[in-house]
Specification:
It is built from 4 helices and 6 strands; from the N terminus they run ββαβαβαβαβ. The chain is of the alpha/beta class. It has one domain: 3-Layer(aba) Sandwich (Arginase, Chain A). The strands form 3 sheets. The chain has a two-stranded parallel ribbon. A two-stranded parallel sheet has the order 3-4. Helix 2 links the parallel strand 3 (65-70) and strand 4 (103-108). Helix 2 (86-97) runs parallel beside helix 3 (113-127). The longest helix is centred in the first third of the chain and has 19 residues, at 42-60. It starts with a strand and ends with a strand.
């Protein structure tokens, strides 16, 4: 079973992933595409994500989940056009972890490297049940990492 939440539009590469794409042959109905338009924020995404994934888990009853965490959905990504924060993105991971099903987390997507680093660090901390300090010591990259929307401060 594959579930994909992704940006979709006729002018957005690769132009696949319409909700009518449901798999073929023996795989029919084992592919669920959730196409999203640009601008989606944390609240809208999480409401949809939780609703869809609750239904999928209840119906499909997976033994394990592989969750690919595409950071191109974060605000200010160079390619993606969503408005998710690292906390909103991480909330999807936290929601799936609470299902109590073994999970493999994978990174993926993300074209603004600073956002990718923040996102995957935050989601790793969630998986390890750790709270990270959001204050970074001053360094030569401080300006790159001091975006309050992404919940990090430089001290």
């Amino acid at each position: 079973m594959t579930v994909s939440f992704h940006q979709y539009g006729k002018d957005f590469f690769p132009g696949t992933g319409h909700h009518d794409s449901i798999g073929e042959s023996d795989g029919k109905y084992y592919s669920l595409n959730v196409p999203l338009y640009p601008g989606i924020n944390d609240e809208m995404f999480l409401d949809l994500f939780k609703d869809v994934m609750t239904q999928v888990v209840d119906k499909f009853r997976p033994d394990v989940i592989v969750m690919q965490c595409g950071a191109d959905s974060l605000n200010e990504d160079k390619l993606g056009q969503f408005n998710l924060s690292t906390h909103g993105h991480g909330a999807a991971v936290e929601f799936m972890l609470k299902k109590g099903i073994p999970i493999i987390l994978l990174g993926g997507g993300g074209y603004t490297i600073e956002n990718v680093a923040r996102c995957w660090t935050h989601e790793t901390a969630i998986a390890l049940d750790k709270v990270l300090d959001n204050k970074l010591p001053p360094n030569e990259y401080s300006n790159e990492y001091s975006n309050p929307y992404l919940h990090l401060e430089v001290i």
